[in-house]
Amino acid sequence: MRIDLHAHSNVSDGTETPDGVIVSAVAAGLDAVALTDHDSTDGWESAAAAAQEHGIAFVPGMEISCRTEEGISVHLLSYLHDPAHEGLLEEITKSKDARLTRAEHMVTLLSEDYPLTWDDVIHHVAPGATVGRPHIADALVAAGVVADRTEAFTSILTSHSRYFVQHYAPNPAFAVGLVRAAGGVPVFAHPVASSRGRIVGERTYRDMIDAGLLGLEVEHRDNPQEGRAFLRGLAAEHGLLMTGSSDYHGAGKPNLLGENLTSPEVLARIEELATGSTVVR
Ligand code: AMP
Ligand code: FE
Ligand code: FE
Ligand code: ZN
Q1: Hey, CA dihedral for 275, 216, 31, 88, is it positive or negative?
Q2: Whole-model pTM?
Q3: What pairs with residue 154 in β-bridges?
Q4: What is the pLDDT of residue 60?
Q5: How far apart are alpha carbons 110 and 55 in whole angstroms?
Q6: Pick the CATH number of 3-93+167-273 from 2.40.50.90, 3.20.20.140, 3.40.50.720, 3.30.1360.120
Q7: What is the Cα–Cα distance from 108 to 29, expressed in whole angstroms?
Q8: Cα(142) to centroid of ligand 4, in Å?
Q9: Residue ID of nearest Cα to ligand 1 atom 8
Q10: Residue nearest to atom 2 of ligand 1 (CA)
């Protein structure tokens, strides 16, 4: 069984439609794939339909952008929550709206030095999608400023850049509680990805575990080996599930579907623990 529990479509910053992700998952030889768009579940319906048509299992998911009091970015994966849960829905709507204002602000700053307009960015955002820096990167690529998203993220779009603007994001422990309230299974995404920015310390893990965290994404290309060993220790100590995933973004990132996998036993546990929605087979 080949199971990949982290992939993005153009409902957020992936480059393929939700059904396109399913087609790619079939081509990658997967038996099950989760769609985990940033702060949105809008892709679930079409992904579920495509998965049934192609005979693979679809795991409804989402990735919530969070930030600690110290300003450290945390990504929280949620599996099988109720997409209509009011508290969670209110929170992701707040984040999505804030992302829009933030992207406009970044484009205003960037336009002082680069040939870039808001229209150029919107051109790369699917209707209703969660807007992120990758869409700004796409517009910069089209303008010939950078070669690809990766170059944009290592130069003008880094969090240290003078063009970077933060957006509202919930506290990670609070988000864990909301996911549990919505019947979902919260899993800390790429927790030790130091290349992305500062990583959290012991207190954040404790707060998230106290709030009901159920898993850690151990096998992810951005987690260095030493960090994975630490995560395995933490999982053993607290009885947390361990997942492995690609974080596929279509052509937007080098990550390939199936490059990391989650065991069938762990997916079965996720299904047992969830009460908000179900795996589509
Ligand atoms: P944002 O949430 O708008 O701050 O943008 C962060 C998103 O950009 C992450 O979710 C990643 O999917 C994406 N990202 C980060 N680094 C890269 C990169 N080097 N190449 C492509 N996409 C990236
Ligand atoms: Fe992303
Ligand atoms: Fe992430
Ligand atoms: Zn992701």
Answers
A1: positive
A2: 0.98
A3: none
A4: 99
A5: 45
A6: 3.20.20.140
A7: 43
A8: 23
A9: 134
A10: 132
